[in-house]
Amino acid sequence: MATNLLSNIHRGLSQPYTDTQLIGGDYFYYHYGCDGVHDQVIFNSEIFLLHAHASSVDVQGWGCGYRSLQTIASYIVHNKKSLVSSIIPTIRHIQQTLVDMNDKPSTFVDSKEWIGSFEICLCLEELYGIYSKIIHVNDGNDLEKNVAMIHDHFIQVGTPIMMGGNIDSAAKTIIGISTDSKDVKNSKLLVVDPHFNGKAEIEILQREGWVSWRSIDSFVFESFYNFCLPQCKLVANK
């Protein structure tokens, strides 16, 4: 059975500032409860991704990092040529990959253990041959110091970024940045939140803020943050 996942759920949102940089291609929105019993993903009536067989998985409370990885993987598979694999991994596949790499013990498979930016970095390299940068930000107050880095990433590379932390441990996928030329503190990140659970509709996702522009001062000041920036220029147009 084929399942239609929503794509490009940010489209239609207004851009806060003139200097706005976005990802360069298409992606699917993976979120809580999006699994069905399926082995195909359809985009614009064309079946172009073979999804490893999956059944519905309850990932609430621990699965946001996996969903962020799947969203990033969908972007890479759709836009990058000559990949090692064109399959978007299931959660079990991700877990088995980390076990096979000796990063996790065998008990990790079928567990409810979460993954973060480091594990996503490992999986992208193992599954697709794509290296990533890991950027550590000491606390939320230091996010403004990294605006230029994020801005340059979307200009020079264009891939989605995974963002995770400790106190603010909810994984997020960053797909754009809008920079205030007068005050960098007002800059905003375009966040795709994987924590939505239910039947996804773009209007609902945008209205309820599951995809939204977030000011950098809206993040938790007391939390450190790690960013995973996949380093591959894709065949795509902004």
Descriptive account of the structure:
- This protein is α+β, with helices and mostly antiparallel strands and 238 residues long.
- It has one domain: Cathepsin B, Chain A (Alpha-Beta Complex), CATH 3.90.70.
- 23% of the residues lie in helices and 24% in strands.
- The chain has helices at residues 64-79, 91-100, 117-128, 147-156, 202-207, and strands at residues 2-3, 19-22, 38-43, 46-54, 132-137, 161-165, 172-179, 188-192, 211-215, 225-230.
- The strands form two sheets. Strands 2, 5, 6, 7, 8, 9 and 10 form a seven-stranded antiparallel sheet that branches.
- The chain is globular and about 50 Å long.
- 40% of the residues are buried.
Task: Give descriptors for this structure.
Cathepsin B, Chain A, 7-stranded antiparallel beta sheet, 238 residues, alpha+beta, 3-stranded mixed beta sheet
Short description:
It is built from 5 helices and 10 strands. The protein is an alpha+beta fold and 238 residues long.
